[in-house]
Structures are given as structure tokens and as C-alpha cells.
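Notes to self after the call with IL:
- keep both proteins in one doc
- input above output, always
- annotate only the second one for now

Protein 1:
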Amino acid sequence: MTPMILPPMILPPMPLPPIDTLLDALVATSLEAGAAILRIRRAGLSVEKKTDHSPVTAADREAEAIITRALNAVAPGVPVVAEEAVSAGRIPQVDDTFFLVDPLDGTREFVKGGNDFTVNIGLVRNGTPSVGVIYVPATGKLYGGSTEEGAWQAVVADGVVSPRVAMRVRRAPEGPIDIVASKSHRTKETDDCIARYEVGRLVSAGSSVKFCVLAAGEADLYPRMGTTMQWDTAAGEAILRAAGGRVVTMDGKPLPYGPGAAAGEGAYRNPWFIATGGMEPLIT
């Protein structure tokens, strides 16, 4: 009798851990990745150029390896879409639940010796960022949250995380608004958008910290008319949504997540967007 050859068994991903357990794991992972980033910068950097001419360093790659290993351990089977892996052509298939990782957001600031660089880990469920952690290794600022449990901020000193302080976006002001904009990627279109508002204060910031400024109630609007990728925004949008804000495209729709129509790395490219706290953006 000829033996029957069965196809290989594909196991489904295990259920996600409880949100508070997952957040604790993401915090610990971001701190480990941040420590590696600072250690490599202290030792001296060798900067390379990727195919899109953006810079990449050993710190990007080591931080991503740390994060990927940790996510595979805490959420086995959940796909991890990470910037450097995608850049190298390793793009996993995703379903309705997956992680988006930017191990070192703000590499240009990092290379220049600035402090506005972050570790970004976001979880997308059903097309929406729902859990996020952003860590600023150079300053010790830590932000996190989930759409189920709200947003918070804390400070890391000597590896110890302070008690978490809840964050909430502020109400739309009746007069001039405060706008936060990119430090290294301002475009004419972004400036044209800003010019449509009565601006009280314009703050320049790098990396995903701009989302956290809105979530903490320290500004009202963040317009981005330029190239970003989903790993740049997922963690920040999750935290902003948890604090009561939102992110919309230029036609007022939610920012989409998941592979788009383009092939390769472009599949995760964002359209232009506006992030807001408690106010309605001007959409045309």
C-alpha cells in the first residue's frame, strides 16, 4: 500500500497576549534596542546609503534584529514588517494583524549627532494601528498606548521606567493653533498647508515624536506632505488615537495600512496626511 504524503501543516499564529502584557514587552524591547543604538553611536558610526539614498547604519540593523526576535517570542506567528528587512527584499505576507517596526526613525538626525530619533513599534489590527510604543533613547522619553486602554508617557533613567502619566489631546483652540512639522523633511506643499491656518506657534521636530507632541496636548496639528512609510507612522498613530486624536489623508479618509498596490518596498508607502489632536483639519 502506497503511503499517503500529507502536505506540511501550517500552524496559525497564536493569540496575542493581553494588551498590558504586550505593552510591557514592547517597552522592554524598545529599551533594549535603544541601548544598542546608543552603544553603537558611542563606538563610532559607519554610514551607508540604501537604494533610495537614505542613510543606514549598524545601529538600524542591530536594533531591528533585537526587536524582531522579541516580537517573534511574545507574539509567535504574527508577521513583522520591518524597515531594513523590507529594504533588503524580505517582505512577509500579512493578514489582519501584523507589526510595523522602524528600529531607528530619524537616522539623519542620529547620524548628525542630534537627539530626535526614536524606536517605533506598532501593532496593526484590521487595518488600524491599535498598540504602539515610541522610545527616544537620547532623552529617555517613552510614549505608549493602546486604543483599548489609552495613551501615556514616562521617562527612562538608568534603565528604570518612571510611573506612567496619562496623555490626552487638547481641545481645539478658538484662536491660533500650534503646529508641529518635520525638522528634516519640510516641503513646499507642507508649508502651503500650514499657511492656510492661523498659527500661534510652529514647532520643528524630528521622527515620530511629532505624533507624541499632539497626543500630549502640546500642539494641535501635524501636516505631512512628503514621503513616509507605514513603519514611520503606525506606532505614532496608535498612540495618538489612544489619546483621542486621529490621522486622515488629504481627502479626509483614515490613513490605510497593509500592502498597497505598489510592489516591493513601495507597497507600504503612505499618502500625504494630516494628524490632529482635538481639531478638525482643513480638507480639500
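Protein 2 (the one to annotate):
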Amino acid sequence: MQKIMKKILESLILPVVVYIIFLILSPATFSKPSSLYIMFLQAIIPAVMGWGLCFMLISGLWDFSLGAVSVLVGIVAADVGLTYGVIPMLITAILFGIALDTVTGIIYALFRIPSIVVTIAMALIYEAVGSLYKGGSGFTIPRKITILGNPPFNFIIGICAFLIAYMLFNYTGFGTHVRAIGSNEQLVKNMGIRPTQVKLACFIVCGFFVGIAALLQLSYGGSMIPKSGLESMTMVFQPIMGVFIGLSLAKICNIIIGVFIGEFTMCIISTGMIALGLPSALQNVVIGIFLLVFLIVSMNPKMLSSLKKRKTVPINS
């Protein structure tokens, strides 16, 4: 029990420290309990997308089409919701998210093109389809069908997504194969497992979570408009950074929990920089520096320990 409590406390050090820093810099915003609640609320959507993305990154895949998929899914789901209601909108978002990422995965598996190239190309295609869909003006849904983006329904959906991701990663053969591919893909091949099939499954699983995230984003914002010129790729950066933090925290806690901690930390940073009035360009610089420093510190413990030893070694005169 003591070990479990120690790991929980260690995994929460990062968001607590970041929160304290911004509490000092902007007490008017961060001293309010409602601010913490709002940041927790905002972390749900990137966390759901991050849970799908972590399967991709662990298996050696990149997916920069997630933003475009999310937008296109949101547009189509909004159209269905306006006609048929909440439940058909929910089903459409999940199934369409799976379908789009399955198409991307099949192209990757058939033509063996690097995942970065495939997903950027598919992002352009999905953005174009969204811009052409029924005039390309997007959709706004009425308040009565936005209930899934507000408490308690968004919390319920987020918890369900967490449990699914946790079970898939820790208690299924698929999760075992993903971790094995991430460790040693050649060894997996020698064991008779086909990495290409596992990676295709990663696309499908990722599409499931992106569909849920698109539904939450649509319901939370109340509208979805198309994007162009790879503008949708900016929607991928926060989930990716949260997953990187989760991967670093995997030594302390389960990666699925770590991803949420990472996304929550990124929400604290984003809220803090807005409260401080930093321009968007400078916000990106701060986020980039934070992620770089965090990854250097967390992934190079041996280097840091050797530097400490050098400082403590007396210099002979």
C-alpha cells in the first residue's frame, strides 16, 4: 500500500508543481476552485484522443490525420444529429471515426508507406471532403443535443473511454502485441506475430477513440466547421505532447493514467499562459520548451546522475 501511495504521489508531482507555479504567477485565476474544475473538464477531450494515439506511438506509428478525422467526423455527426437526434449522432461519430482511420490503416498496410507520409496525405483528403460536404459551411447543433459534452455525461463518456483503453492496453492480447512491437519488432516477427496486422488494428482502435473525442468536441462547442491547409494538424499537438508525458510517467504509473496526467498538465499550462496574456506564438514557444526540458530530464536519468557525481567528486589540486 505504501508503494502504491508513493507512486501516486510521484505521478502527481508534475501537475501539482505546474499548478503551483501558475498559482503564484496568476493567483486571481488559479486560486478559484472553478478554474481547476474547468481545466479538468478541458482535459477530457485531448485525453480520449491521446488514449487512442498512445497505441499508435508505442507501436512506432504516427498519425497526423487525427485532427482532420475529428473535424470530418464532427461535421457528419452534427448533420445526423440535427435530423435523427443524440443517439444516432453518437453511433455515427464512433463508426465513422473507425471507418476513416481504418481506410488510413489499410493504405499504410498495403503500400508500406511511412505512417507520417500517409497520415499527412490523408489529412489533406479528409480536410477537402469536409470542405465539400454539403456546401462546406459546417454545422451548428441546438443546445438540446449538446448534452453529451456537458457534465455528467462527458465525465461518464470519459470514464468509459478510460476503462476501455486501460483494459485494451493491460488485459488483452492486442495490448501485449502492441507493447512487444514497441520493444522489439523483429522479435515479434520471429514469434509468428504479424506486426502489420497489429498496426492496422492500432489504426482501428485509434479511430474509435477519435470518434468519441470528436463527439465530445462537437457537443462541448456546439458546432463544427471544416478546416483546410493542414490547419487540423494543430489539433494533434496537444494529445501528442500529453502522450509523450504519459510515456515518461510509465515508469511510475500505468501509461493510460499517465496520458491523462499529461493532458491535464498541458491544459494547466495553456490556461496559465492565457491568464498571463501571452500571445499565441509565445505560448507555442513556452509549450515547446516545457516539453523539451521535461523529456530531457525524464528520459536521461543516467546523464543527470553522472552530472551530479561529477559535481561531488573533489578536484585534486
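Annotation: The chain has a mean pLDDT of 88. The two ends are 50 Å apart (CA to CA).
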